[in-house]
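quick one before i forget lol
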Amino acid sequence: MRLILYIGHHKVGSTALQAFLAQNTVALLQRGILYPPVESLGFSHFLAKCARGRDEVEFDHVNIREPHSALAYRMMADATQRQVPKQFTKLPGTPQMLNALRNQVEQIQPETVVLASEAFSNFGEAAPSQIDRLLKAFPSADIQIYCALRRPDEYMISWHGQRIKVGEPVFPLRDVGMAPYTNNIHFNYDRALWPWITRAPDAKISVRSYDDILATGGSIEDFAHETGLDLLRETLPAGRHNKSLAIATFEIVRRANHELSAPDARHLRDYLLWHTGDLDLIPNRDIELFGPTHRAEIVERFVPIHRQLSEFVGKEEFFPGIEKIRDVKPIPEVDAVADTLRKLDPQAIGNPNAAQFLENLKDEYLT
């Protein structure tokens, strides 16, 4: 039996892959590929699809789409002071989850088991013993580890936007907001990858850059290509499950998360997430969030990490043109914010507190 572990990284298309695997569990199982649930809601959904003999069963819960993130966060909570994210609800303990995986393997006897979670990338730094614990549940499996990585400046912007989108209080990247990312797996990619490699010395390792993934067609297509799994034949598309904020709205939402009540800030976030597509905002690729000093720091600090990655995969440069990180985008973030505020109608928000907040920002940026 093969065990294929998708260990992340974050913000490289993992949600799209997980949604696809969850959407097509029946079709994939018929080909010997098991994307296993780990708790009661996931099992109920899995049984409903099997009973109907097809995959057209809707789901809208993260436990179903990302069962192995539920497992990963529970395992980290066992070994650290970290809490399981609140969106993963009513989870059993880790022993029950691991036993559920073992039982499925024993009863179904699949050719391949796929465990997919970007949260696995945290194990190497936060709880390396949990790598051993997970692999121990599959003692005789042939293992393949797939890891996707994104150029660090692009990654930090995407992860920063994700944190803003979910309401976390952060600071601008052009100021002190970069610091929380540069001393952990969000910058030190070796801490995410090497502990898996050393603890699974016989595993086949696929380390892919985000640009290569996009060139192959996306996260699903690249995963299928690298693993050789028959994923794409007669399967259903999963749609988009992790819509991103436009970078031109980052600072507006970031300020709202600090200055508005949680419900009002959420209302504004949702509006800007879903109702700015027709405003002709400045494109993401043109907005500068770091500034030249921070960009130079990223390059200087990332060079040894990049060298190690390049040597491991046998490429001259894992991220081609790494020095391009120094290149400053043409439009400063503050100018992009001003442009966005000119185009926003506060009264269209439908929330008086959020509308007044926008009016105040307009006074600050436009006068």
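fyi The two ends are 66 Å apart (CA to CA).
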